Structure formats: structure tokens, C-alpha cells
Amino acid sequence: MGEQRGTLIIGIGNPYRRDEAIGVIVARRLKSLLPASVTVLETTGEVGDLIEAWREAETVILIDAVHSGALPGTVYRFDVHRQSLPAELFPYATPGFGVVEAVELGRLLDQLPPHLIVYGIEGTNWIPGKPCSPALAAGIERVIEQIGQELQLHPPPQPSPESESPA
């Protein structure tokens, strides 16, 4: 196994399907706010892509849209080492396999990162188009703030100072 690369944030979604873009939107915002030591990726959430992406990470935070009928912008947080993801919240996976299936397959294969947190933000509009619903703005801000708190609990590794050699 390779060296653990620290903290990875993955925004999941389709930027061309309104509220389904929520994970990608959060990832893009975080990328501009976080230090370079935190890796931020965007993906559609396919099982193989997720497992491969988190393979070497110590701490992984996933962000995706959910659909439960709650108020738009409602935020859910799951620590997958303490609880299973409720499949009914994540029904909009790309052809039937997404976050829930990736987590459960990773669990079965013992390939989950040591710290894996999943944030879901309640969406309401799933039709093609841009941008996401304005009602999700508060949820976006709340998740960005909570991820900042997560990173205080599991800070990314600091680069070691490079030794300078005389010229």
C-alpha cells in the first residue's frame, strides 16, 4: 500500500441537472477556500471512481444531493464507520450505483478510508439545467462550515520542510 495522502474531499453530482450538482458546487467552493494540502475532486459518483479516489486517503469527505422530502437545503451527516447510509436518501445515483453502493462495497472489501464522512444536502429540482435551486444556498454554506470543523478534527498533514543542500 502507498503512502497515505491525507485529506480528500469529493463533490458528487452532475453540474447539468440542477440540484444534483450540489456536491460539485460545494467542492468548487471548498477548492478555493482550503489549503493545497487538501485534495478536492469532482465526480459523478460511480462506485469504481469513488473507491479508487479514496484508496490512499486518511480522511475522506463526500458531498452529494439527497432526496427525502425534507425541506430543500436540509443537511445530513453520516460517519460511515458508525452507521450505514440510508439508501432511500440517495436515489439519484448514476445508473443505479453510487455513494451507498461504493461505501458498502468498500466496507465489504475492507477498502474504506480510516475516516469517511458523507454529507447529503436535500434537493428538490432534478431536471436538466443550471443552476441549482436558490433554496439550497443555506445548506451549501452550512456544509462548507461543517467541513471546516471536520478538518480541525482531522487536519491534513503538513508538508515536511525540505532540507536545503549547499549550492
Structure keywords:
4 helices; 167 residues; five-stranded mixed sheet
Major beta sheet, specifics?
5 strands, mixed
From the 3D structure, determine the CATH topology: Rossmann fold
In terms of DSSP E residues, the strand content is: 15-25%
Mean pLDDT: 86
Overall structural class, as computed from helix and strand content, comes to alpha/beta
Helical amount: 25-40%
* Helical stretch tally: 4
Annotation, overall tally of beta strands: 5
Description:
The C terminus is likely disordered. The chain has 167 residues and is of the alpha/beta class. Strands 2-1-3-5-4 form a 5-stranded mixed β-sheet, with helices on both faces. It is globular and about 35 Å long. The N and C termini lie far apart (36 Å). The chain has a single domain, classed as 3-Layer(aba) Sandwich (Rossmann fold). Helix 1 links the parallel strand 1 and strand 2. It has 4 helices and 5 strands.
In short:
By secondary structure, the chain is an alpha/beta fold.
Write the layout of secondary structure elements.
Elements: E1 7-12, H1 22-33, E2 38-43, H2 47-54, E3 59-66, E4 75-79, H3 99-108, E5 115-122, H4 137-153
Helix pairs in contact: 1-4, 2-3
